[in-house]
């Protein structure tokens, strides 16, 4: 099982390094998805398939697609259309595709050999919910307050310069 961990961790580190050094936001997102998939495989290795599923669905799925759509929808003219063509060139997919193929091979080998069925204690949704809303309730509430503060901060940063002009009834 340790060889699977080391390969997955190496892929996560390599992909994360490419996230940090990528010049294009779309390339960075592709590598971030690969990194999150590698971390999900590590979760499966250590008996947390529920956490792995959440990692894939919530982070690699929903949030990355949302960020990708925001980047693509902020079209700023013909120059950005050409830049998007360069971002989506087949050469941009070679690195993330190769790392994802290695992850898929590791996952298939893991399932085929049953290497994850050793001394691992599986944690299901019931145990996660009991821990989050039991022992870690204060941490969950503090995290929700931090997220709320980030949401309010993002709203204030994104609003227009003159909010009084936007209100109905003001001339």
Brief overview:
This protein has 171 residues and is mainly α. It has helices at 2-21, 25-45, 49-73, 78-87, 94-113, 125-132, 137-158, 163-166.
CATH class: Mainly Alpha
Helix content bin: over 70%
Number of discrete helical segments: 8
What's the average pLDDT? 77
Please provide the count of β strands.
0
Number of domains: 1
Ends apart, CA distance between termini: 69 Å
CATH superfamily: NADH-ubiquinone/plastoquinone oxidoreductase chain 6, subunit NuoJ
Uncertain runs = none
Q: Order of helices and strands, N to C? A: HHHHHHHH
CATH architecture: Up-down Bundle
| Main sheet properties | none
- Can you tell me the overall shape? flat
Classify the fold: give the CATH topology.
Four Helix Bundle (Hemerythrin (Met), subunit A)
Strand content: under 5%
**Structural category:** mainly alpha
Radius of gyration: 21 Å
Element layout with pairings:
Elements: H1 2-21, H2 25-45, H3 49-73, H4 78-87, H5 94-113, H6 125-132, H7 137-158, H8 163-166
Helix pairs in contact: 1-2, 1-5, 2-3, 2-5
Q: How would you portray this structure in words?
A:
The chain has about 170 residues and is mainly alpha-helical. It has a single domain (about 1-120), classed as Four Helix Bundle (Hemerythrin (Met), subunit A), CATH 1.20.120.1200. It is built from eight helices and no strands. It has helices spanning about 1-20, 25-45, 50-75, 80-85, 95-115, 125-130, 135-160, 165. The longest helix is centred in the middle third of the chain and has 25 residues, at about 50-75.
